[in-house]
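Same chain as my last thread, 225 residues:
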Amino acid sequence: MIQFRAVTKKYKNNSYALKNINLDILSGEFVFIVGASGAGKSTLMKLLYHEEAPTSGTVTIGGINIANLSNDKIPNLRRCMGIVFQDYKLLQNMTVYDNVAYVIRTLGISSREINARVTGALKIVGLYNKMHATPAELSGGEQQRVGIARAIVNGPPLLIADEPTGNLDPKNSMEIMQILDQINQRGITVIVSTHDNAMVDYFRKRVITLDKGEVVRDIQAGTYE
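reply #2:
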């Protein structure tokens, strides 16, 4: 499903974020991207949803090279994936329901279909009973659940989570990772960048380790170290 071929990201000050990355991630996999701060995790994730473009090499998703995608095609790319951020990025003046519905209201589908998709996503993350709450009325863990519901409401084949537990305590971190694992069991490819070694060690998924922009380890059913 996803291929990185000779991908390098170099910045104007001649520093490298990524160096000659070659990776294959199959449909339905759950993959942890780990490494120290500055190892290149966030840059790799941003290449997937085209927040950044590589200096050289190709990034292919579903057979399409997205490395040099034109700006007008980026929205279509992102509709095919769900993105979960560390800082939630919720709209504070909207309810939980409207935060989740926001991303599909431009798709021209009926109100009944929107309601079915939103309530279904909220049930998956365990927030159906809080659909009328605002983000200010939720805990950090609950806000991240809203972020996950928003990411999956359109039924994407790929979910990208960049440090999804970075602002959470261990209990909430475990609950978020369990939800992501359940989503993966529905056949969705899940890629998680994290520095949370306890979560990585617990779930024993595929672990790709970056160091100074290079892949130094790629192991199935692995641990953080």
